[in-house]
Amino acid sequence: MTKPLRIGMIGYGFMGRTHTNGYKRVGDFFPELEYRPVLQAACARSEDKIQAFADQWGYASIETDWRKLIARDDIDAVDICVPNNLHKEMAIAAAEAGKMILCEKPLALNSAEGEEMCAAVEKAGVPNTVWYNYRRVPAVTLAKHIVDSGKLGRIFHYRANFLQDWTINAELPQGGAGLWRLDAAAAGSGVTGDLLAHCIDTALWLNGSISNVTAMTETFIKERVHTETGQKQKVSIDDACAFMCHFANGSLGLFESTRYARGHKALYTLEINGEFASLRWDLHDLHRLEVFDYKDEPALRGWKSVHVTDNGGEHPYMDKWWVPGLQIGYEHTFVHQVADFLKSLEDGTPCSPTFRDALETQKVCDAVLASAQDHSWKNV
Amino acid sequence: MTKPLRIGMIGYGFMGRTHTNGYKRVGDFFPELEYRPVLQAACARSEDKIQAFADQWGYASIETDWRKLIARDDIDAVDICVPNNLHKEMAIAAAEAGKMILCEKPLALNSAEGEEMCAAVEKAGVPNTVWYNYRRVPAVTLAKHIVDSGKLGRIFHYRANFLQDWTINAELPQGGAGLWRLDAAAAGSGVTGDLLAHCIDTALWLNGSISNVTAMTETFIKERVHTETGQKQKVSIDDACAFMCHFANGSLGLFESTRYARGHKALYTLEINGEFASLRWDLHDLHRLEVFDYKDEPALRGWKSVHVTDNGGEHPYMDKWWVPGLQIGYEHTFVHQVADFLKSLEDGTPCSPTFRDALETQKVCDAVLASAQDHSWKNV
Amino acid sequence: MTKPLRIGMIGYGFMGRTHTNGYKRVGDFFPELEYRPVLQAACARSEDKIQAFADQWGYASIETDWRKLIARDDIDAVDICVPNNLHKEMAIAAAEAGKMILCEKPLALNSAEGEEMCAAVEKAGVPNTVWYNYRRVPAVTLAKHIVDSGKLGRIFHYRANFLQDWTINAELPQGGAGLWRLDAAAAGSGVTGDLLAHCIDTALWLNGSISNVTAMTETFIKERVHTETGQKQKVSIDDACAFMCHFANGSLGLFESTRYARGHKALYTLEINGEFASLRWDLHDLHRLEVFDYKDEPALRGWKSVHVTDNGGEHPYMDKWWVPGLQIGYEHTFVHQVADFLKSLEDGTPCSPTFRDALETQKVCDAVLASAQDHSWKNV
Amino acid sequence: MTKPLRIGMIGYGFMGRTHTNGYKRVGDFFPELEYRPVLQAACARSEDKIQAFADQWGYASIETDWRKLIARDDIDAVDICVPNNLHKEMAIAAAEAGKMILCEKPLALNSAEGEEMCAAVEKAGVPNTVWYNYRRVPAVTLAKHIVDSGKLGRIFHYRANFLQDWTINAELPQGGAGLWRLDAAAAGSGVTGDLLAHCIDTALWLNGSISNVTAMTETFIKERVHTETGQKQKVSIDDACAFMCHFANGSLGLFESTRYARGHKALYTLEINGEFASLRWDLHDLHRLEVFDYKDEPALRGWKSVHVTDNGGEHPYMDKWWVPGLQIGYEHTFVHQVADFLKSLEDGTPCSPTFRDALETQKVCDAVLASAQDHSWKNV
């Protein structure tokens, strides 16, 4: 007999779709789980839009005031899928109402907000997680297993990029649906919170904490029409951001992200170099992990492209899907996170990354933005 | 207001899962469609197994006798997901009962059976399709668009492989759940009907009809324990099959398939070489299409890896999914086929490949197997 | 104290250049060898052309009559770099004159000629070799070492392609300098002797003898202007050739070659699939060998790209060149063959492939062409 | 009638071999050049070693005192292939003696030395060049042509890495033959002068000058046995160095180099992202250039792998070598630089990079090392 987990979704954008898809599919592929998400209610200010969303995806009801959603007795968990500047208020209110929270990344506009949010969920004792979904790409989870096994030995280098090219066009406005990511008021930052936050989350998970950073940001297009005013306004977000850092384990880090790398749509790449082995991964072929093992037979050493599609139990999550050789895609990372969240409820354990875990990423982002501001190294 | 399409599913194996997933997801991603699949009933001889399948996936009822399923008034379409030797009888019965039919590939054990099936569906006038799902990989559909545009000019070569390695182990038995593909009685043939049939279907679609063939087959492991008898028995299927052919358009074809290519799990690759351009694709990275265009600037000619993930309308089906750079996977091909089937009902057009289309593939398979038998060229 | 090996070169075309470069460079990179090639004389009918060639490359003298060259006392070894229809007569004459012979591939127009040539060199007891240079790509030599080690276990499949696109243009004439490869009178065959012969030589070396074949050839452009007559004449060579075969070890072979594969310049690829491991190589990135090892840790199995540039003794020939990571190219294969030939003189051993080894390739080519002629399987 | 260019080579190590090979081969492949290098004399302190080198490579004479070499009347050009701390003195002496100079990179230990060297060659008016050989990889030269054509539009990003792994072993000593690169006294710096200098030279050439930098260096193995003392001594070089920078054209730069990236032997990669097109290259497959062109047909946009082997005049330098599809290697870059140097003598033009050009790289290296020292941004 399964138990329902009644979801209250706030938002209906790109992330609203990916999370909802996760809720809907998890039961088909993880039938052993005790809990089953139920699409209880979806919420947004625009009644028309949220009704259309609810109809398409099958939410049982709608709300246009998120406070009402949070107040409803028939909601167990609140999913926050709105611009970053709204996370804090909603999360704290949901915690105070005793709701579980699944919050879209980044956790908050900054770590001060994040601290308040952590305090709230911890005080309330409610299960909480942040949607840093790339941890649940099977190839990335496999990388984590390999790192944890000690196979790499001492770590020397970690590097990650997140390269896109969708804002090169100067005619693209800032603000509004889908484009609030270009508006600093809504997003807090540009690529730092949007893209680098993913890279940092994975890095902290795989390689431990970051001690200090020095960063550089750039805004290539200085002014864009704002959709709310119809006027050209200064663009305040970072179009590109790079930083160098030291990890606590003594390794060096190099991170870069931009929306001006012509030819790359969502090229999140990561590489970690250890004494005995190295790993590489990229999001454009997310079902592959590249591995170099120095302990291989010397004449046959090389980079190996592991097609992470084995359903025989060797590859994380893959026993839930199809047969060897058949790849899954981007959306499955959200199904996996839902599954892990449901499992954590069964087990009474936290579902990583929790708000507290995600706060660490926020602190690195803050240090990065501060360093870019005054051009000096910053401790995290 | 959407209309229900009540599905009666026969079978619950790997294909039962992929088809069912297609039915369940299509509404979320193709909300504009008039029809919506409803999981009305699932059927198999084993009551326990089919009940478990129905419970997991949400079928409203079960049957243990496929004739009863077909007879039910509340079933609009029958999906045949059982071993190949059962296709004919079920399909003909379903057609006679006036049901639409979605039949797993290959259409039949041979083209004689296939002819009967075509006659039955055509006499009954019921919509029908065969699950040659790789036509609906967006990269393959894009290849079709490019070929149809005439960009390639005169075609010289077509080659395709389907390489696997899962039966190298001599201890693997034949027969039984999941392993009926090694049993000639159930499967009709080995890799020819299982794997080459896919390659042939795509080839006929992209490059037109095949005139004649010469083939070679091999059974590397001569005897395997049969799960029904517990005894070692002669293996009658082809473990590997290769053939050369002439296409009607004057181009040469080369096809190979095996389950003994160590290192390849599901490496379906195809390449087509034309006078002005060439295309390549492989299933291990199914979201990419490689294109060589001789009309490019001479110094910059080269093979281009197109990441077929553009949601701006440039790439087939991709406007239904996520954002550029984010790949989909294997299972989506079935969602696409369901969507196209539903659309064909709206439009009153056939959904390719129909039984009649799939019969062409069957004829090539028959010629291949006959040629392998007597070592001579055969006309198709 | 080194000993001179005085070379008499017949021909000055593409192969004349690659061989000469091999002679000139071998001493710099293989200083331990006892013999050193000396560019004693170059020979061709056109005095102007051969003088220009001799001047550019540093041959000490020229001849315009190959019989005179062969007769000279100051020539130790004759290098035959002329169209295939001239090989037999020159080689037999050189053998009778007691000269060592380095003959460009294919050995002859057919195996009857090849038999005579073998008889001649064996009767004369002169060292002899045929320039199947791809055996000396370090990655291919490494493949040979791996196969010989038994690491692959039982072999199931061998496949090789040699794909080019340089004759698609119908305006290209046949005959004349550089284009005699399109003239059956000079070349004997088209891609079979020119390209497939390479694939066959490597295959026999790596995977043992071929028992029988069935082949298909095509001439896509039926008529071309002949440079000697200025008239359009029937093209008698094969523009494309594919064949299937059985190896004596029970494995299946599939070979294809064409000059009409748009986008491929010299894409010689080979793959061998064994029970425990598989290998792949291609000429477009000739410094890499791909290896799949089933005995790897299961979760980390994958195709490994070995950059065959290790100068630490792990990789064949590479200790002679630069440092790890720095690739060599096509021309080095000829330097290696010269080095091995010189070493064989020191050791008194044959330098593979000898005429006798190359005759085996010729026999397969003959069977391929005969099969293509009458559309039936042929024993080799 | 060709003119001799009599070379006096100082040094006999890895670079001594690559340069000498360049001198010896240039005439065979660039026969149209007026000048021909003559291996007049080789020089090193150890008589045995330099005699062996001269014997192997064919130098006509030896010297054990570089001042004597420079003083010889029969030397036209001096090639400096010794540790970096010796460049300045030799170069200035050679210039004063009126010799042309071909100096191994980096130009000097620092830009102060470099300035003196520039002053000396300019005062003497002697032709001079520095062996930043990667400019002459055909794919990199092609990249330069593309950038200069304006095809990329406004440049946003430039990134380059040079990753190696050969010093991970803590038992490797510092100092001595082949290992002076680990000894700060001889090398000046570690990876900065050795590897990043290459990346910077190419970057300045392709993307113009660098305005300011912030850098981070690390020495992972703190002590190594010094070959001169036999004692463990502090390692003073940088094992790894990364820096961020602004180019004068407004683009952002990111550079990294290390000898601790397990799995990479000589992975020099570069990428440049412009408004309309992007380019990528890496040294492990140096015969390929990757190109993304936004102006391609939208559905077919993608990264194109250009095999830079066209001998039809489309690809720089390739008309001198073999036929399309046949790759050249690392050593050819030196042949090309010799050819360009000889051509510059004919034309009376400078051969880039001159000492003055190389000084710009030195200035960036100085700023990088200074920034790493005090952790702040530095203007170049």
What are the salient characteristics of this protein?
homotetramer, 380 residues, alpha/beta, Rossmann fold, Dihydrodipicolinate Reductase, domain 2, six-stranded parallel beta sheet, 17 strands
What's this entry about, in short?
Four copies of one chain form a homotetramer. Chain A has 380 residues and is α/β, with parallel strands linked by helices.
Give your account of this protein's structure.
Four copies of one chain form a homotetramer. The first copy, chain A, is an alpha/beta fold and 380 residues long. The first copy, chain A, folds into two domains: 3-133, Rossmann fold, CATH 3.40.50; 135-379, Dihydrodipicolinate Reductase, domain 2, CATH 3.30.360.10. Helices cover 33% and strands 25% of the residues of chain A. The first copy, chain A, has helices at residues 14-29, 47-57, 66-71, 87-96, 111-124, 138-148, 184-187, 191-207, 332-347, 355-374, and strands at 3-10, 35-43, 62-63, 77-80, 100-103, 128-130, 155-163, 210-218, 223-225, 232-234, 240-247, 252-258, 267-274, 277-282, 288-293, 303-307, 378-379. In chain A, strands 16-15-14-13-7-12-11-8-17 form a nine-stranded mixed β-sheet. In chain A, strand 9 and strand 10 form a beta hairpin. In chain A, helix 1 packs across helix 9 (332-347) and helix 8 (191-207) crosses helix 10 (355-374). Chains C and D meet through helix 1 and helix 2 of C and helix 1 and helix 2 of D.
